[in-house]
Amino acid sequence: MSASATPFTPLRSVLYMPSSNGRALEKAKSIACDGLILDLEDAVAPDAKTAARDAAAAAVASGAYGRRTVTIRVNGLGTPWHDADLEAAAQAGPAGIVVPKVNSADEVRGLVAAIERAGAPDHTRLWAMVETPQAIFDAREIAAASDRLAVLVMGTNDLVKELYAEHVPGRGPLLTALQTAVLAARAAGVEILDGVYNDVQDTDGFLAECRQGRELGFDGKTLIHPGQVPGANEAFAPGEQAVEDARGILAAWEAGQGAGVVTYQGRMVENLHVESARRTLAIHESILALQA
Ligand SMILES: CC(C)(COP(=O)(O)OP(=O)(O)OC[C@H]1O[C@@H](n2cnc3c(N)ncnc32)[C@H](O)[C@@H]1OP(=O)(O)O)[C@@H](O)C(=O)NCCC(=O)NCCSC(=O)C[C@H](O)C(=O)O
Ligand SMILES: [Mg+2]
């Protein structure tokens, strides 16, 4: 098993929905998001947990979500629902099982063992949510703890709560945590998704946060409303200019015929820029393939 998700399976827009909400589960079949998180945790009331678990498993089994990466978010370790959620999710075999409030590498190894005991297929990866101060301090070990761990997911609501911080434009109080988590993901070679933007009516604020997430290095953003999908898809895809530059860099490099350094539009190009250009084009092509 490789250490990361399938290369360039786009995860620009990953939409949470309460698995207790049949209308949302139905609607998701036609939403242009790259991924879905069928939630059993925060968005589901205690008396709806069992029905939501069954609905999430049935949704995965239906195969009705096409090319979207479908995951199930279980309730956290230590809650009354965790064990049954994890077993049901493992047996349903989604692309990922999202576990909230993962706090250590030992927890990751325990979760992987439990998923494997429950008979999860190889394609079912662990997505660990980092959303506590402890998780941020241990992010590097968490990200590297198992080859089955493919994605880190920021839980910025829980993080703000635990820090006694505030949600403010620009996310100053969270920047250290966000950057630490991105460093951990990149060091381990796993993907990382930014947290949600709570105000579903504030488009400008949402788009600014998407741009910031992209600039920080996130692969995509978790979302709570279908209206947020187009903005995330655009923000986390290479823009036209980036694609044109990547093609130009590759052409300049090939024309250099083995020179260690060339220029493109007056700028120095070395092997590292060529690698970045190839990555940009690979992401672009994988997004085009989704639309085909
Ligand atoms: C936020 C919402 C409660 C708003 O719901 P609502 O007022 O119903 O929205 P709309 O009327 O605008 O909905 C329009 C249609 O879209 C469908 N819809 C809405 N949201 C979703 C969704 N998430 N997925 C799929 N479809 C959705 C509605 O059903 C309407 O459909 P139709 O009637 O056919 O036109 C709501 O958006 C919502 O519940 N969002 C998800 C909330 C959630 O999952 N929260 C938990 C995850 S966030 C979190 O916990 C992060 C982390 O742990 C942290 O700590 O930060
Ligand atoms: Mg949370």
UniProtKB/TrEMBL annotation:
This is Citrate lyase subunit beta/citryl-CoA lyase. Residues 12-226 form the HpcH/HpaI aldolase/citrate lyase domain. Mg(2+) binds at residues 131, 158. Keywords: Lyase, Magnesium, Metal-binding. GO terms for molecular function: citryl-CoA lyase activity; magnesium ion binding. Its cofactor is Mg(2+). InterPro entries: Aldolase/citrate-lyase_domain, Citrate_lyase_beta/mcl1/mcl2, Pyrv/PenolPyrv_kinase-like_dom, Pyrv_kinase-like_dom_sf. One of its GO terms (biological process) is oxaloacetate metabolic process. Its EC number is 4.1.3.34. Substrate binds at residues 73, 131. It is an enzyme of class 4 (lyase). It comes from the Bacteria.
